[in-house]
Amino acid sequence: HNMHGKSPVLRIVAALAGNALELYEFCLYGFFAAIIAKLFFPLEDPLVGLIASYGVFATGFLSRPLGGLVIGYIGDHYGRQRALELSIAAMLLPTLAMGLLPTYAQIGLAAPVLLILLRMAQGFSLGGELMGSHAFLTEATPRAHWGYSASWSIVGTFFGQVLALLTLRATTWLTSEEALVSWAWRIPFVLGALFGLLGLLLRRAVPASPPTTAPVQVRSELRRCLPSMAYLYGLGIVTTVGFYLIGVYIPVYLCSQRKLPYSIAATSTIINLVCTGAALPPLAALSDRIGRRPVMLVGSVLLAASAYPCFWVLLYAPLPLMMLAHTFLGLVAAVIYAPTPAVFMELFPPSIRHMASSIAYNGAVLSFGGCSPMIVTALIRETGDPLAPAYWLIAACGASLLTIALMPESSELVYEDEALLVGTRIT
Predict the structure, then answer these.
(1) What's CA 140's distance to the chain center, in Å?
(2) What is the pLDDT of residues 288-332, one digit of tens each?
(3) Does domain 1-207 have CATH number 1.20.1250.20?
(4) Which of 96, 286, 364, 424 is the most buried (most CB within 10 A)?
(5) CB-based contacts of 91: which residues, under 8 Å, 6+ apart?
(6) In 209-261, which residue ranges form alpha helices assigned H by DSSP?
(7) Superfamily of domain 224-408
(8) Within 13 Å, how many C-alpha atoms sit on residue 244's CB side?
């Protein structure tokens, strides 16, 4: 795969590194929510503290659309490189600051306020990162290999989560409970900033891609892309719900519903994430051969069919079977995930690709994916059915099936200004 003549591995690693850091940091906050609640929201009621802490987690999503707009605009007008350097820097600084932030006991009300501002800054960065790295990878490869090359950028997101879980295990294993609460929870955040610096250096090492063709009328171009944005939104529902439910929520679910020790839940999650991440490139390469829609269609049907039985096994079956079900869910979801990065790029002309895809994707994350853990927790409480998360996953698959039925086969779409981008040969 010729990526601008310069080593494709460097390009892949540079794209991977940014996504890995973004997800590493984002997940760390989710895992440390209980400790952060104690230190920054010292309320009498621990539940209120936890809700406040997850509320801050949610504010991290609110600034995403703005980040998508700004970073996407920069990516389309000044080159993908500039945009990705900005997004990793915008993640690195708040991550370091979170590791050094004084607590409520030290500076009072300023602590939670600063925490919220830092989450907003991180969300801003996340808003432009994912689609930017998809564009960065695809546009340097021939069209025939877009599925395969773009899939590496989501491999990065799984790698970041695994890194977060391993760092978490190491930190909890090496320190006592009170050390963890008083200072040790900060270590992973500071480490994250160091990872980020490495990622930034990698991105600077890759030769810069040229900016896309002549500046366009952004407004009219966006209007023309509305159907494509709707398709991306529809697919984004299942990819984000699947991602947050299977990778982020299930470990919490196993602890709360099945009363498992956290170490077992984390181990199950690590196995699930590693297998899912490893399955992505081959599945995406398959979509290069047979088309995106058939692969996503099979994945959506399989995920809808296996959601309920898998959640039942997660809850009631012996441990080895439980871990198997967790990983099986991840692998089935991977069949949907794998072609999507390429699809998200193929739906748009390069002149507005980064911005339009970011807006639509962030819309899906904001309205469905990010709030999935809160929604399914509420569903369980209201229905009294511990298997309620399965229904939410099935509903998301319904949205994706509808989208796949309506959308064109994106790998066949051709744009007149595509050929002007260096390195993109439509083959």
Answers:
(1) 22
(2) 999 999 999 999 999 999 999 999 999 999 999 999 999 999 999
(3) yes
(4) 364
(5) 18, 21, 22, 25, 122, 125, 126, 129, 196
(6) 218-224, 226-242, 250-257
(7) MFS general substrate transporter like domains (1.20.1250.20)
(8) 27
Half-sphere exposure of 242 (CA within 13 A, CB side): 36
Domain boundaries, the chain: 1-207, 224-408
Task: Please give the pLDDT value at position 2.
Answer: 47
Q: Which two tokens stand for residue 81?
A: 């490189």
Other CB atoms closer than 10 Å to residue 140's CB: what's the count? 26
Q: What is the pLDDT of residue 423?
A: 42
Helix H or strand E segment including 40: helix 33-40
Q: Which amino acid is present at 105?
A: A
Length of the chain as a residue count: 427
CA nearest 28: which of 184, 135, 134? 184
Q: How far apart are CA 281 and CA 237, in angstroms?
A: 21
As a whole number of angstroms, the distance between CA 59 and CA 278 comes to 31
Q: What is the pLDDT of residue 426?
A: 39
CA dist 199 and 194 (Å) reads 9
State the CB neighbour count (10 A cutoff) for residue 384: 8
Distance CA 27, CA 95 (A): 12
Helix then strand count (H, E) for the chain reads 20, 0
